[in-house]
Amino acid sequence: MSRIELLIDQDGPLTRAAVLADGRLTDLHIDHADRPSLLGHVFLGRVERIVTGMEGAFVDLGAGLSGLLIAADARNPDGSRPKQKPERIGALLRAGQPIIVQVKADAHGAKGPSLTMDVTLPGRFLIHAPFGRDVAVSKRLGTGPARAALSQRVQALVSGSGWIVRAGAAAASDDALTLDAEALILLWRGVQADAAKGGPPRLLRPGPDAPARALIEQGGAALDAILIDGEALARRVTGWCDDRAPDLSPLITRHTPPTRLFDLRDLDGAIADLLDVRVALPRGGSLVIERTEALTVIDVNAGERGNPLDVNLDAAAEIARHLRLRNIGGIIVVDFVNMRARSDAERVLAALADAVDGDPTQTQVYGMSKLGLVELTRARRGTPLATLLAPPPSSTTPAATGVSS
To answer: Under 8 Å CB-to-CB from 193, ≥6 apart: which residues?
Structure first.
């Protein structure tokens, strides 16, 4: 069984949380103080104007920032779903109206942040959707009696509806599930209380920061150690664990100089490699990853001695890993090495689908064309790593501080 470690440090404007399995980087969460992500932030916004041509509304979030709310993500003023799907967003919203919205995707290119009135608050084992109508179970838990039993178990433990059961819940104790649910309910009550204290536009609750995201996304996966560089950061993470995940508190160790924490695993070098266009594959060959504004293109090269099938199988695993670590979203096109046998192509396609299955960000693999091109879509969540680590722009946006949510 792999040894799983979470390393957290502060490096200038960067707060970094890296997950390693047997010393190899598997997940990376970074916050940049000069370029904060708004993903997951909950705002009390003000509807600026309805745009009937695109069936959407621009919502003022404050500090000169606007987001787009499309009709599919709009709800009644109280956040509940309309009984019938409205033909026009203007049937639900009007200019000047205060509404609670959540950022579901950061600004991209010339587009501002995307918003939803379907607020979701993530926990380690559960996701609270305050306006949801039922208890939904993650598709990763498969089908059959075990899935139904887990749903019934959660319904017996949590109050009300509006819950999504994450894959890690299957191995969680009743006490852990109850604690997760109670923390999320309190978080939502806090949002509601803050919304009642004044008018829009203003930030009600920041989304989880890098350390919290790492702890949440690990869910029920076993952690062997949490190493933190910096006294203040260690206090914040310890406080979060004491409140939300007391089973993790004993795993926390504060790292002390003279060696920097990330130097212990050469993580600075590993992160720098994630900014490189070319990625070497274990059995020869390489990937070339090139991002454009419209899509990301990945070319698989066999090298001089690479067997096409072996190279493509290695590539499938490495592509999934780099999409996750680089936080690449949108449309992705992969040009695999040409294979003569249809069975080989099907095997590679299955390997790719299996490799992205563990990605917490929704990723969909489509079929392989006659030219060997495979199309994927991965939801845009936060800022791509290459953009995040580039020199920051001069503009500012609302930021979160500390371990949150």
So the answer is: none
Tokens of 198: 């004044």
CA distances from 141 to 128, 129, 184, 374 (A): 18, 19, 22, 26
CB-based contacts of 251, cutoff 8 Å, min separation 6: 223, 224, 225, 226
- CA separation for the pair 290, 301 (Å, rounded): 14
Q: Which helix (H) or strand (E) holds 263?
A: none
The continuous run of DSSP H or E covering 142 comes out as none
**Residue 11 tokens, joined:** 């490096």
The residues near 19 (Cβ < 8 Å, ≥ 6 apart) are 4, 5, 6, 25, 26, 27, 28, 214, 218
3-state secondary structure of 161: coil
- List, for residues 288-334, the tens digit of each pLDDT value: 999 988 899 999 999 877 789 999 999 999 999 999 999 999 999 99
Q: Three-state SS for 126?
A: strand
Give which of 140, 127, 141, 122 is closest to 214, Cα–Cα.
Answer: 122
DSSP 243: H
The Cα diameter of the chain in Å comes to 67
**Secondary structure class of 319 (helix, strand, coil):** helix
What are the helix (H) ranges across 254-378? 267-273, 308-326, 342-356
| Residue 42: strand pairing partners | 102, 205
Query: What is the dihedral angle through the alpha carbons of 269, 275, 278, 283, rounded to the nearest 10 degrees?
Result: 50
- The CA distance from 256 to 277, in Å, is 34
**Whole-angstrom Cα distance, residue 292 to residue 298?**
11
Letter string b/e over residues 285-295, b meaning 16 or more CB atoms within 10 A of that residue's CB: bbbebebeeee
How many Cβ atoms from other residues are within 10 Å of residue 259's Cβ? 10
pLDDT tens-place string over residues 258-294: 899 999 989 999 999 999 999 999 888 999 999 988 8
Alpha-carbon gap, residue 382 to 104, rounded angstroms? 9
In the block, residue with structure tokens 């639900």: 92
Pair type for strands 126-128 and 121-122? antiparallel
Comparing CA positions, the residue from 334, 227, 337, 224 lying closest to residue 289 is 334
